[in-house]
Amino acid sequence: MCRLFAVFLFLFLALPFRAQNAPRFDTDEGTIVSLENAWNQATQQKDQAALKMLLGPELVYVEYDGTLMDRAAYLASVQSQSLHPARIVSEAMKVRLYGEVALVYGIYRENGFKNGKPYSLRERFTDTWVRQKGSWMCVASQATLFPH
User: Fold this and answer.
1) Which phi and psi angles does 9 have, rounded to 5°?
2) Is 59 exposed, middle or buried, given 0-12, 13-18 or 19+ CB atoms closer than 10 A?
3) Tell me, what CATH number does 68's domain have?
4) What single string gives the DSSP state of each residue in 63-87?
5) How confident is the model at residue 16, as a pLDDT?
6) What pLDDT digit, counting tens, does each position of 98-130 carry?
7) What is the pTM of this model?
8) Do residues 121 and 111 touch, judged by C-beta distance below 8 A?
9) Centroid of chain to Cα 135
């Protein structure tokens, strides 16, 4: 929980330094972008508590290789002892709002070590967020691998 608070605090303090065309945090679009970035940080740090706050219990996650996971399987994959992500970032994110649903798409980059060997991924992703009881949570995510 402390890590998630630290991520949100960092995001809040970084707001004055954002690019002019970046979404504002005080908008739903800005909130969703901040949550996407928090997801990256939580995954990189293997922070289960933060991930459980961000990902809906009914999460449907489709990995770039076609693997279909629910939230429990995704959380287990993040905890893998063979996986050590060093850097996870999203870029070129766009948010489309449809009432209480937000669709996010962009590019996801990750690098680190898996089974002791360096790896680097670049994926195009689509995430679906739903606002429930005033909070946004991701309920579906899909990624497609593409060359660097």
Assistant:
1) -65, -45
2) buried
3) 3.10.450.50
4) -TTS-EE-HHHHHHHHT-TTEEEEE
5) 41
6) 999 999 999 999 999 999 999 999 999 999 999
7) 0.82
8) yes
9) 16
